[in-house]
Amino acid sequence: MARFFAAWSCLLGGFLLCTGAAAFSPGDLSFSFSGARIRHASFAADDLSLDWQGEGGAITVGRLELMGQEWKRLSFFCARLSTEPGAFRCEGGRLGLPGLAKPAALTLIQQKNTWRLELRPVAGEQWTVVWQTSGQAHVEAKNGRMATLMALLPPLAGLQSMKTVGGLNGVLDFHPDTGFKASFVLKDGGYASADGLQAAENMGLTLTLSGQPRAGGHWQTRGALAWTEGALYSDPLFLKSGGQRLEFSGLLHAGGWQLETASLHWPEVGEVKARFSGDWNGIREGQLFADALALAPLGEGLLRPFLAGRDLPDVVLSGRIGMELGWQGGKLNRVELRPENSGFNLGNGRFVLEGQTGRLHWNADAPGESELQVERMALGRLESGAFTLPLALWPQGFALKSPLHIPLLDGALEINHLEAGLDAEGQWEGALGLSVQPMSLEQLTPALDLPVMRGMLSANLPLIRFSNQEATLEGALVIQVFDGYLNCRDLRLIDPFGVRPRILANVDIQHLDLQQLTQTFSFGEITGFIDARVSGLELAAWQPLRFDARIESSPGRYPRRISQRAVDNITSLSGGGMMASLQASVLRLFEDFGYRRIGIGCRLESGVCEMSGIAGLDKGGRYALVEGGGIPALTVMGYNRAVDWEELIARIAAATDAPEPVIE
After folding, report:
1. For the chain, what percent of residues have pLDDT higher than 90?
2. CA-to-CA separations, 184 to 141, 148, 189, 242, in angstroms, rounded
3. Which residues contact 515 (CB under 8 A, 6 or more apart)?
4. Residue 500: which residues within 8 A CB-CB, separation 6 or more?
5. What span, in angstroms and rounded, lies between the C-alpha atoms of 614 and 213?
6. 327, 445, 467, 569: which could join 655 in a potential S-S bond, CB 3.0 to 4.6 Å?
């Protein structure tokens, strides 16, 4: 800043005093020129214009270059200029800078070898610069506004485009032989970018800085920055002051800077160290590393406020983590994370990882070998045993190095293949293959908050590929449940992570045990087996839009009985109301009945289910859902063919929750 004002001083007074001119009357002066250029060892000015009339005049500079940085569209106006041998005084001055709403009031005094400039942009704000021709300088800020400072500083990192607030107080002393010392305090500071992705408020900062000249035009610097209050936001992170203190040392020169050592002390979290180098436009190379940072306060201070502001599930972190990050050529090119018994709890137990230990390594130039040991994973009440996650992280994605075995209850989840990465257009693509080893439904269903089911569950998903926002199953998804098989073919998931995901599939079900199924959902007991087919299934936002479904008794010889409650519930699905009087009277005499066949169809389209029954048994608009057989035999008829889908779902829910009927 001192050199900035020194350059201006030479521009303003050079034509009068730099050559030691004798006293004269400014009122006798009247001249002007434009388009001039000035070159000096410390600065350069282009498109320089001067218009001097009598006691006052104006100077404008299209471009001023100083210490490798530049300012554009600068202006100076002096209303009254008084001179005497070896001195002059400018009063009623104005300094115009692009970042200031209006020119700032200015007083400039030169006496012998000393220049004094006082800048007063608004009432109560004053910037004072005292500069000697020997190179010594003193800068002082009293209630300095951040907006003024941003206008005076070179345009680094787009700071001038931000809206800033706050008051700055402090001093800087400079000597060309011994160096400089500075101490500044910021109160109630803040800034906000135009896009809202960068912001800070109520900031309290204390900065101490010193530097000594070294050979080759370099400056050895040391300093400390303490964050005493306030909060800042840098999308997507939000951080509050917690007594953080940064200590650093490095080199400054015309071509850039070098941060030789930096240490951030963060109470309750740990210490982060760094080394960086770069030019005045950004980072070229660097390293950032830390050992055993506490994750709990990081999650509390960084993640929790961010998630809460977006109505996202809460996350609780635990344990510690070490890290190393590297930059080369101005880009992040290396990341290594070393969790130490770390934990992750999403949504108050919705998803949990505990006891994570190992190494995750990413390199921008070549694949990085990684391995993570996990003691426990939980999805709600479904918990896993310990497992090891072997990963290869490559520049644009990741993959499993070998199959992953995750113990679950009395079975296991086997992930045989997993890879994902970015394609040439920056979109995610990948592939997944997994299977579920047989596990008891009696253990699995309560862990998933489902009604207790009997039997075993197993599944096989050979390979599912994801590309262009669509996931496609190669082969078939086979699930074993209720002693039967569910075979899902032609499975497609369109935009599965979007606002309105869609699912397309065809499903075949074979030899499902009706006794296990109906007892599980309290529908009323039915013995026997069924086959089912669902063609053209389409779901949007996880709700069915259309399908053509058919349920029929499996072929073969086996006991076929149906209870009173099951008969009543099946009849209610078609909206038939009260059963025929003959059926109602029979219900009072028997607990269950024999049947020959079950046949139920539903073709869903536009929110309406077109119901159908057993072929060849329709009677006067009614259709048979259950064909009687044995002793006693009872045929269950449906009455309405067009049933509203939402109403049908409500009837099924009521049927599974209803108590056993009382027959008198």
Report:
1. 40
2. 9, 15, 13, 20
3. 525, 526, 527, 528
4. 540, 541
5. 97
6. 569
Task: Dump pLDDT digits (tens) for 194-249.
Answer: 888 888 999 999 999 999 999 888 999 999 999 999 988 887 777 888 899 999 99
- Please tell me the least confidently modeled range out of 6-20, 58-72, 82-96: 6-20
Alpha helix stretches (DSSP H) within 42-199? 146-152
User: CA distances (Å), 132 to each of 287, 379, 653, in order?
Assistant: 40, 71, 89
Who contacts 654 (Cβ-Cβ below 8 Å, separation ≥6)? Answer: 572
Q: Inform me whether the pLDDT recorded for 659 exceeds 50.
A: no
Please name the helix (run of DSSP H) or strand (run of DSSP E) that holds residue 563, with its range, or none: strand 561-563
Whole-number Cα distances in Å, 335 to 324, 341, 362, 616: 6, 19, 5, 69
User: Could you give the C-alpha distances from 655 to 175, 495, 524, 632, 640, in angstroms and in order?
Assistant: 90, 35, 9, 24, 18
Q: Give phi and psi for 280, each to the nearest 5.
A: -75, 0
3-class DSSP state for residue 374? Answer: strand
The answer to whether the bond into 236 is cis (omega within 30° of 0) is: yes
Q: Long-range CB contacts (< 8 A, 24+ apart) of 287-290?
A: 287/324, 287/325, 287/326, 287/327, 288/323, 288/324, 288/325, 288/326, 289/322, 289/323, 289/324, 289/325, 290/322, 290/323
Q: Which residue has the tokens 């990081």?
A: 298
Q: Is 112 exposed, middle or buried (0-12, 13-18, 19+ CB in 10 A)?
A: exposed
Q: CB atoms < 10 A from the CB of 411, how many?
A: 18
pTM greater than 0.85 (yes/no): no
Q: Which of 495, 655, 646 is nearest to 570 (CA)?
A: 655
Rounded-to-integer distance, Cα 571 and Cα 626, Å: 9
